[in-house]
Amino acid sequence: MAKYNQPDPRNExxxxxxxxxxxRHSAAVSVLDSVVQGGDAVWEGLRIRQGRALQLHEHVxxxxxxxHALAFAEIPETExxxxxxxxxLEANGMTDGVHARITLSRGKKSTSGMDPRLNVFxxxxxxxxxxxxxxxxxxxIVLVSSSVRRNSPATLDSKIHHNNLLNNILAKIEANVxxxxxxxxxxxxGFVAETNATNVFAMKAGVVMTPSAVxxxxxxxxNLVVELAKKAGYEVREDRISLSEFYxxxxxFTTGTMGGLAxxxxxxxxxxxxGEKGPITKALQxxxxxxxxxxxxxxTKPR
Length: 303
Prior knowledge:
Radius of gyration: 19 Å
């Protein structure tokens, strides 16, 4: 387990939202809930820092869009989701160093089964707020390539931020066995898609490269970094990128809500650059931190 992603004892007595506030130690969903029956749910991870929610609007919009793509019969309104998030944070007095996991399932079924027509009780909204730091720290991470291929739109479109994460979990198991931090997943044609948990970027001769959104989730952090890199004057290439191009890159970093920009030291035993955080990574990290903070929503102000 990543040393920066350990359980925090402060979370044990907190309140969570399961269609209403309940104590964490007794929070539960029905055995007939769709998330239990078939992983039929969508989710987001929201970061809270110094009294502000980062990319709140974008996360909630993607949650609702994913539910729509999965044809949920009922989707809570945006303001209802905001309210659940902020009531949960307020109930716990949480304002900094917090990760909120937001899950929306199709809801409880009338009887066990796959058919969404059995979902007659409405959706289940869960907000799990926890004290949690950045997943990777700032020391650099080690990646290995996985034999597990990333889902393509021909099977299960990764652009739907769904709870059926077995594809990613199998790749993560391979990373664990290799004693690496995470695994790079390739698409069905052998090009780099993303890691099991993050998007990934490579820098070569001053060009910022990232896999095109064919078999990866076009993450919110990824999209913001692409936008910011272009504004900063970097040439940005979104393309089908091979694993060997990552091996020979000058710099590599991953992007994600709970990892920010984390530089990569090695991939499959190949040293990336000199193994240290490179100048472009440092520059984009600084630009990203400023941009995401300036756009954050203050917890004490109306949404």
